[in-house]
UniProtKB/TrEMBL annotation:
PROSITE patterns: IMP_1 (PS00629), IMP_2 (PS00630). Pathway: Polyol metabolism; myo-inositol biosynthesis; myo-inositol from D-glucose 6-phosphate: step 2/2. It comes from the Eukaryota. Coiled coil: none annotated. Its EC number is 3.1.3.25. It holds the Pfam family Inositol_P. GO terms for molecular function: inositol monophosphate 1-phosphatase activity; metal ion binding. Belongs to the inositol monophosphatase superfamily. Keywords: Hydrolase, Magnesium, Metal-binding. It catalyses: a myo-inositol phosphate + H2O = myo-inositol + phosphate. This is Inositol-1-monophosphatase.
Length: 335
């Protein structure tokens, strides 16, 4: 039998089997209860918090990534290593997207497989400066749909969590957004991310100007996208918008907001896409749409664009806030 004949027989049978297996995965993920997985995620987040609390108080070696404002420390890398190895030990077939693994050169690919999306320290600049808003963000997706999200605001000791279809909680207390529908009665949160190029800075400042002149009650920035968005789920703020963040910053908190009754959309008004690096999370669709109408986005490569995440530029040595700031070691950083 020729190779072609073998291939044609195989392809006749393979396709249905492939379809069958991906359909089975879809059906099982719908039926699957990921509670046990989420509880394990919460358990390891609590362990990781202890490492962060200890390191928060001591002097840090700080490395730079894509800009003088894009910081990373040994603790970011150690916590991500700790989380991933703990998950691999229990769920060896699960996949991972980790901020510092991607920064060290791993490809960012979200498949239908069970995938943990991890930001070991969201708010690294806060961590370096001992500004007390530092979070661990862990999302879990199957078939590219987030099944649960965990955001642990470590210094505040506030553990936010949500499982798809089962509500959102902070330290086990149910959460609900403000439900505010009038933009002029809104307190907004946003982030001035790590971008320092002129277009990004001009866009961010003009967005703030346009929103303030609506007017809105105010605009805040906590320094961690994950905590910013969790504040929407508590009703403590009414809407969050951001351009330039990454999937690991917001995958968990996007589910927490929607499970608290909020809405999460793209800044262009379309459906939220965690890889697009643009988000509006709000107490109501009317507020979300009003913000989408007011703001502009600057261009960002999608997180899942193979050309994204080039090796970060080497930035010169400098010292900062009592910490030693080092340029990133050449090539891939060890994790
Ligand atoms: O602290 P990170 O995990 O790097 O995330 C930060 C990000 O670096 C910064 O640019 C802002 O977008 C913050 O909102 C993120 O949380
Ligand atoms: Mg982050
Ligand atoms: Mg981080």
């Amino acid at each position: 039998m020729s190779l072609e004949e073998l291939h044609s027989i195989f392809s006749v049978f393979a396709l249905p089997i492939f379809d069958l297996s991906s359909n089975i995965l879809r059906r099982t993920s719908r039926m699957a209860d990921w509670t046990e997985c989420m509880n394990y995620g919460i358990h390891i987040a609590r362990e990781a918090r202890e490492v962060i609390l200890h390191a928060f108080r001591i002097k840090k070696a700080v490395m730079l990534k894509s800009s003088p404002a894009d910081l990373v420390t040994e603790t970011d890398q150690r916590v991500e290593r700790m989380l991933i190895s703990a998950i691999k030990a229990k769920y060896p077939h699960h996949k991972f997207i980790g901020e510092e693994s991607v920064a060290a050169g791993e490809k960012l690919i979200l498949t239908d497989s069970p995938t943990w999306i991890i930001d070991p320290i969201d708010g690294t600049a806060n961590f370096v400066h001992r500004f007390p808003f530092v979070a661990i963000s862990i999302a879990f997706a199957v078939n590219k749909q987030t099944e649960f999200g965990i955001v642990y605001s470590c210094i505040e000791d506030k553990l936010y969590s949500a499982q798809r279809g089962r509500g959102a909680f902070c330290n086990d207390i149910p959460l609900a957004t403000s439900g505010q529908e009038d933009i002029t009665k809104c307190l907004l949160v946003t982030e001035i991310g790590a971008e320092r190029d002129q277009l990004a800075l001009a866009t961010m400042t003009s967005n703030i100007h346009r929103l303030l002149e609506i007017p809105v009650h105010g605009i805040r920035a906590v320094g961690t996208a994950a905590v910013d968005m969790c504040l929407i789920s508590t009703g403590g703020a009414d809407a969050y918008y951001h351009i330039g963040m990454h999937c690991w910053d917001i995958a968990a908190s996007a589910l927490i907001v929607s499970e608290a009754g909020g809405v999460v959309i793209d800044t262009n008004g379309s459906e939220f896409d965690m890889m697009a690096r643009r988000v509006i999370a709000a107490s109501s669709m009317s507020v979300a749409r009003r913000i989408a109408q007011a703001i502009q986005a600057f261009p960002c490569e999608r997180d899942d664009d193979p050309r994204a995440h080039p090796q970060k530029a080497q930035i010169e040595h400098s010292t900062d806030s009592g910490n030693d700031v080092h340029k990133k070691a050449g090539g891939h950083r060890r994790l």
